[in-house]
Specification:
The structure is a homodimer.
Chain A (H helix, E strand, L loop, with lengths): L7 H12 L4 H10 L9 H13 L3 E6 L7 E6 L1 H11 L5 H4 L4 H9 L5 H31 L5 H29 L11
Antiparallel strand pairs in A: 1-2
Helix pairs in contact in A: 1-3, 1-4, 2-3, 4-6, 7-8
The structure holds a DNA duplex.
DNA sequence: AGTATCATGTAAGAGGTTACATGATTTT
DNA sequence: AAAATCATGTAACCTCTTACATGATACT
């Protein structure tokens, strides 16, 4: 229904809250004390994002008055929220996502229990193909730069830095594929 | 004098234009067709950023009327711009910069000709130390997660993905150090 | 008594994305 | 003749950052 897709931060919020209902403050603590910090973590971003997700019907809040003087808004996913998350997780990795955004790995992290083993394998394979394509691009740039005169040597080295990073990601994917394939096939959490 | 530091995009613009004076359109083309795309590349970001840099006195524009009907604003660095760039390149890598932003590698790329070999070595070593510290942090998280029950396996794997990435960066630094150390010592472009 | 933590938010400002607007020139 | 490229920009919108505001409770 809503036209505008959630942002990466919003998906990270949905993913975290899908694991266990929690308050905005709780979310902030988790983001602040784990590598999830990558996706912002500032209260001034989190509270408005939660409001947006609530307004769009992906989250619901329920007041927890366990401590009377300090009410907490406990968020949990609505069916629409769970559906949006699952639909997102199913999207194949695109070339654009490889750069900058941590979306591919966030989707993988949230795929546990949502996708079957076969689907996870397919996702990782697709990601690997996207990476291979981008690596080819980068090596093309490298060759073009080497052919040119007067390219600053630090520029070449910076490009090499990028290539190493993506090659490393590529190796992790094979490693992850081996791990996932070693699992019992078709283990899939049932929806209730 | 100006209190607000340039953004990463602005430093990328300064760095590119420092190599050769060019128009906003030229910049856009370079950003659009090279891995520099990482730093945005959209015209709606580039033109305003160039204006800001001009207003702050870091860039000057000079109208190129070579093609009468299509005047181009050719930007080049002012002495203040070159000074700002050089000062930035000298900043050591911080923990925060390791995450998300491509600042450490951009600074390295722009350090060529601005820093002496010894200074570049020091920069890389500092970067390596920052990475080592962050890697320790991440391995601490990993150990803490392994100790906990009910951690989703994909979460563990995602953390591993991050660790692999930073380890790879670490290895690149050693590789770069070897390359830089192999150069003639103290070769430094003179300012004119 | 003072600081840190819990817990919620809002406000101002900056920057980026997308789309629009213009108009000449080159390519197909 | 139509489309893409050259070349500049602006406008609307959204999100994030930083800082502020509030007030209770727990710690030192």
């Amino acid at each position: 229904m809503t036209d505008d897709r959630p942002t990466t931060l919003e998906y990270a919020l949905l993913g975290l809250i899908s694991l266990a209902p929690m308050s905005g403050y709780d979310v902030h603590k988790v983001f602040d004390t784990t590598p999830l910090a990558h996706f912002s973590s500032s209260l001034g971003a989190i509270y408005p994002a939660l409001r947006r997700l609530e307004r769009r019907g992906l989250l619901t809040a329920r007041l927890d008055r366990a401590i009377e003087a300090r009410p907490r808004r406990m968020f949990s996913l609505t069916p629409a929220g769970e559906a949006a998350l699952e639909a997102w997780v199913r999207q194949p990795v695109t070339r654009e996502e490889l750069i900058g955004t941590g979306e591919p790995i966030l989707r993988f992290a949230l795929a546990g229990g949502r996708l079957s083993t076969a689907e996870v394998v397919a996702y990782l394979e697709e990601w690997g193909r996207a990476l291979d394509g981008y690596l080819e691009e980068l090596r093309g740039h490298q060759a073009a730069m080497e052919a040119q005169p007067q390219v600053p040597p630090h520029g070449m080295m910076a490009l090499e830095h990028g290539i190493w990073g993506f090659e490393c990601q590529r190796r992790w994917i094979d490693h992850a594929l081996a791990q996932v394939r070693a699992r019992r096939p078709v283990r899939r959490k049932r929806r209730r």
